[in-house]
Design goal:
By secondary structure, this protein is of the alpha/beta class. It has 15 helices and 16 strands. An 8-stranded mixed β-sheet has the order 3-2-1-4-5-7-6-10, with helices on both faces.
Length: 382
């Protein structure tokens, strides 16, 4: 999609993307503020390096305006939030500035928005280095891929409290990763050794395996560049059959991952046994997947329960420890906390684990035994 077409009308995918960014920003800003408030005066930031025009031609507001309106409506953040919006196109910057100036009560913001007109490259990184020395949430949403680099993400994540959300154009990357003409670009993004290994592994792989390999390779690269905790949210094209792009979140801290997992889980268009799809598919929107006989043998909660029995054999841990070590820092971060509680409840009912306090000792709500994060779970030895 060209930038001209992109800003004509806001798509459902774009709307969900904005909601995810805005909802996480609201949670992140409160967490950071609670940490810094005790120190007295503080400042937090939001930076959008591919900010665009501010509003779609159909009148829909894009992310910068929604973030600013949130700050205006919140007395504390109106005095503590500093915003930075960049776009390489001067017309976009001019239009964004006009839209910002038209916002009701924008003048109450202590730190008026800063709008710049840089190409996203090393010069912009140097500018950020000089201007942003406080916790900041960065959003990188290029129309293509140009300007997005692991070096940029690594620089962003160095700062205390800084997290990054970025658009990953999977459709474009998948099409060009093995194109000789694009070798240098792909090597620059993934790193030469990783890109070459990825090309070898992709040979004759299925569509699903290709996608899994590319995303897992991306997460490995992020981990090496400071993004220890990452999660992806998939968007399909309108036909519901092909992946279009991903929204990727990456952070240095598991608490950030936990909160974004919850946000992306709530914004998922489909669920199976309460397990979010971590995707937006127009065809499955707002639907709980109806289980078939085949699905009963492929239950995500059963899979999680079996994984817990195997991975924690012989160990005693609290629910919180299980979730953090297995779900957030382990390989299973596509489950939310409630899914872990459901899997543990199933194991408890089947007599496969011992809990303290026991089910009989724990308070029941609507006849369902609660499974708080401090419940201690004893797993049997294999």
């Amino acid at each position: 999609m060209s930038e001209k077409d992109f800003f004509t009308k806001q798509t459902e995918q774009s709307e969900i993307k904005t909601e995810i960014v805005h909802e996480y920003f609201w949670i992140w800003s409160h967490i950071i503020a609670n940490h810094l408030r005790k120190k007295g005066n503080y400042k937090i930031g939001y930076a959008d390096l591919f900010a665009g025009r501010g509003r779609y031609k159909d009148g829909s507001k894009s992310t910068p305006l929604i973030i600013l309106e949130t700050a205006i409506q919140h007395s504390e953040f109106s005095q503590t939030l500093a915003t930075f919006f960049n776009d390489k196109k001067i017309k976009n910057c001019q239009n964004l500035e006009k839209e910002i100036n038209d916002l009701l009560d924008v003048d109450i913001l202590k730190h008026q928005p800063v709008i710049t007109n840089f190409e996203v490259d090393d010069n912009l990184i140097e500018w950020i280095r000089k201007k942003i020395n406080f916790p900041c949430l960065f959003f990188l949403d290029p129309c293509g891929y140009k300007g997005l680099s692991l070096n940029l993400i690594q620089f962003i994540l160095k700062g205390f409290g800084c997290d990054c959300i970025f658009f990953f154009n999977y459709l474009w990357i998948n099409q060009h990763l093995e194109n000789p003409v694009m070798t240098n670009n792909m090597n620059a993004f993934f790193g030469k050794a990783r890109a070459e290994k990825l090309r070898e592994e992709l040979v004759e792989k299925s569509i699903e395996d290709r996608q899994n390999l590319i995303i897992s390779s991306l997460k490995e690269a992020l981990a090496e560049h400071g993004g220890t905790y990452s999660i992806d949210y998939c968007f399909t094209k309108n036909d519901g059959n092909r992946t279009s792009h991903f929204l990727i979140f990456t952070s240095k801290h598991p608490a950030g991952l936990k909160k974004m997992t919850e946000v992306m889980g709530r914004k998922s268009s489909g669920k199976t046994e309460g397990v979010p799809s971590f995707s937006f598919n127009p065809k499955e929107k707002d639907k709980e997947k109806i289980q078939t006989l085949f699905d009963l043998y492929d239950s995500p909660i059963d899979k999680l329960a079996d994984s817990l029995l195997n991975d924690f054999a012989g160990q005693n841990l609290t629910v919180k420890q299980i979730y953090y070590t297995h779900g957030l820092t382990g390989r299973e971060n596509k489950y939310v906390l409630k899914n872990y509680q459901d899997a543990l409840r199933k194991l408890e009912e089947e007599g496969k684990i011992i809990t303290k306090p026991s089910a009989n000792e724990r308070r029941k709500i609507d006849r369902v035994v609660t499974f708080g994060q401090n419940v201690l779970v004893a797993f049997p030895k294999n």
